[in-house]
Design brief:
7-stranded parallel beta sheet; 50% helix; globular
């Protein structure tokens, strides 16, 4: 099948981008052809997506001569824009990653699509309450645990190394090294020294993971204790007693929004570690059961196969909404083009400055070399001058000897 994904940001290691790439990698391994339309992309992420079996395009460059069997749509404006461009499709699956970010909300025509899913029970609850969507119309597809993480088993023995994974690390987490001087703490995320996709190999080096969202599933599935905390705050270690509450909120830290100091976090990390460590094997089993990617994507595909074809009506509301989406994407694309133009100018000017600095360095090196050569010649000149004067003195002495 031809499967088209949509996602707004493919310009960094965002949770939504990784989520789409992980699903595409699995579906590609099953023989499907996976495509994705995104408003903001970078060469690095294009290569990453290709390595995961996903062909990445800007919306205006997406091949429209293909009939897509499934459109797996996140971030509604892209879908509306593509429909305005006469996108050919059979079924549309609307995915809602959250209930509070506007682009994550479902489009007006969600009820005419084949499937509507949410990433958490929290999002489902908000969609029911705020948008009056019937509960039986929403399928919960949680953050997923790729099989490569689940196949690794770590089960650390003591707390010596901590990894913090976040694109928005709060100050109290950044201050942890001051309160845990004997513990190695490494930060991964946007703005940090290390900014890259998280792999089983990376997590296997650590005894505790501090994070929210999908990294929690990774760590639980590998048997590594997880301290659930980020810019919303958090409840601390994931345990058998609180995982259901945290899962409801997608391990976001929003279950209680508890904010504590770096000193308190350090104390909790140390004092509760061995109690949590004893629960890790059971938590790993729960993670595999609840989040294993292959299991839940197979189930989702079965639901989609049984779902009706999508037929979006030409109602005035839908047409107005689609035009609104088109306007959003065109404005975003124009804005991003302006940013890229400015960046190109900056890069060009930076290159010119670098070339000037390089020329200045070369000039300075040549000047230094010339100076060294001059010093060398001066030294030789003084040496030869001394020898010449000595020889002249001896010659004069010899001449005088014969004359006298």
């Amino acid at each position: 099948m031809n499967i088209l994904f949509t996602g707004f940001y493919f310009d960094g290691w965002h949770g939504s981008m990784i989520h789409i790439c992980e699903i595409a990698e699995y579906l590609s391994s099953q023989g499907h052809h996976c495509y994705c339309a995104s408003v903001s992309i970078t060469d690095e992420v294009i290569q990453f997506a290709q390595n995961n079996g996903l062909k990445l395009y800007l919306p205006q460059n997406l091949p429209l001569n293909i009939t897509y069997d499934i459109v797996w749509a996140y971030h509604f404006p892209i879908l509306g824009y593509l429909i305005s461009c006469k996108l050919k499709y059979k079924k549309i699956h609307i995915g809602c990653l959250s209930s509070f970010v506007p682009v994550d909300l479902p489009p007006l025509f969600y009820n005419e699509c084949s499937l509507l899913s949410s990433m958490s029970e929290e999002t489902k609850e908000k969609l029911i309450k705020n948008y009056k969507i019937p509960a039986n119309k929403i399928y919960v597809l949680k953050n997923l645990l790729p099989d490569c993480f689940a196949s690794c088993s770590c089960f650390p023995e003591r707390l010596k190394k901590i990894i913090v994974v976040s694109n928005h690390i709060p100050p109290e987490i950044k201050e942890l090294p001051q309160h845990m001087p004997d513990t190695q703490i490494d930060f991964f995320g946007y703005g940090e020294k290390t900014y890259q996709p998280i792999t089983p190999e990376i997590l296997s080096r650590y005894d505790v993971v501090i994070s929210i969202g999908k990294t929690v599933q990774y760590a639980l599935g590998m048997g590594i204790p997880v301290y659930n905390y980020d810019y919303f705050g958090g409840s601390g270690y994931i345990t058998l007693q609180n995982y259901k509450k945290e899962e409801f909120h997608n391990y976001s830290g929003r279950s209680f929004c508890r904010k504590i100091s770096a000193k308190q976090i350090a104390q909790e990390l140390v004092s509760n570690y061995f109690e949590v460590l004893s629960q890790v094997p059971a938590l790993k089993e729960i993670a595999i059961k609840n989040y294993l990617l292959s299991t839940h994507i197979d189930k989702t595909m079965q639901i989609l196969q049984k779902s009706p074809y999508t037929n979006i009506s030409q109602s005035s509301e839908n047409l107005l909404f689609i035009q609104h989406c088109k306007f959003i994407i065109e404005q975003c694309s124009a804005y991003l083009d302006q940013i890229q133009t400015q960046q190109d100018i900056i890069n060009k000017n930076t290159l010119s400055v670098q070339n000037l600095e390089k020329d200045q360095l070369t000039f300075q090196q040549n000047a230094d070399l010339s100076s060294k050569r001059i010093q060398k010649y001066r030294h030789k000149y003084k040496k030869y001058k001394k020898i010449s004067l000595t020889l002249a003195f001896f010659i004069i002495c010899i001449v005088l000897y014969f004359i006298l």
